[in-house]
Amino acid sequence: MQDFTHDSEVDRELDELRARAYGPDPDIGVDSPALARLRELEAAHRADVTARTDAPNTPGIPGEDQEAPEPTNPATAQPSQLAKEGSLPLSQRAQAVWRSRLAWTIGALAVAGGIVVTILLISALRPAATLHPTLAEADRQVQRLVLEEASWYQIDVSNLRAYGTYHGLEIWSGLNAFGSPCLVAVHRASGSLSESRCAPPPADLIMDVSSSGDGFEGFDGLVGEGIIRFTFRGDTVDAYVYLMPRDG
């Protein structure tokens, strides 16, 4: 592992890799070098934090250029300060430490609770639509777009499955050369592949299509800017609409 320092360049790299792994549009699963680099940086980050936490905190020794601190007045000092300086009895020092740890634990539980509630709220959102398979077969245009504009996924165009059209986007699913399920969105009006995504099981297969894409602006029948998120459910595809109204 290469030497690790918390400079701005490494921090930015770590933030970018975390966004690719844990953000709303994760794609690091198909990028093995990036995934390995993320694990390396996170391991180095934990080691650096541990080293800083374990570093001895040696107080300065009063000398000619440094005045010795004045003794703490037990009548006016805070319990935590007295506990640090040894002016409290052992039982009271133990209580002060216990209260400090209790406050930290309560704070951590509150933060964790907020994260759980947020995740539950997001997961509880209902899709705007659920798309079901149709009998349509992929024509030459669809096959060509998948082969040319999503070649890195190595999707097998012979087994593409149609889920109909949603706000101008044809949704298809298939398998790639590695056996991973894939989703593609074709914008036939502009003759372009709006988005494609593959994810190996058991990862969730999620494809976000932006309202601003190659050859088109906005979704048919919708006003505003944002994304439509398509989530593959095996036999169905759920569609979630996230749009912000345009200014003016």
Task: State the main characteristics.
single chain; disordered N terminus; four-stranded antiparallel β-sheet; 10 strands; 248 residues; alpha+beta
- Helix and strand content put the structural class at alpha+beta
Q: Profile the largest sheet.
A: 4 strands, antiparallel
Provide the gyration radius in Å. 28 Å
**Arithmetic mean of pLDDT:** 79
Overall geometric form: elongated
What does this molecule look like?
By secondary structure, the protein is of the alpha+beta class. The chain has five helices and ten strands, in the order H-H-H-H-E-H-E-E-E-E-E-E-E-E-E. The strands form three sheets. Strands 1-10-9-6 form a four-stranded antiparallel beta sheet, with no helix packed on it. The chain has a four-stranded antiparallel beta sheet with strand order 2-3-4-5, with helices on one face. Helix 1 crosses helix 2 and helix 3 packs across helix 4 (90-123). The longest helix has 34 residues, at 90-123. The protein is elongated, with a radius of gyration of 28 Å.
Helix-strand blueprint:
Elements: H1 8-22, H2 32-54, H3 79-85, H4 90-123, E1 129-131, H5 140-149, E2 161-166, E3 169-175, E4 181-187, E5 192-198, E6 206-210, E7 212-213, E8 216-217, E9 225-232, E10 237-244
Antiparallel strand pairs: 1-10, 2-3, 3-4, 4-5, 6-9, 7-8, 9-10
Helix pairs in contact: 1-2, 3-4
Entry summary:
This protein has helices at 8-22, 32-54, 79-85, 90-123, 140-149, and strands spanning 129-131, 161-166, 169-175, 181-187, 192-198, 206-210, 212-213, 216-217, 225-232, 237-244.
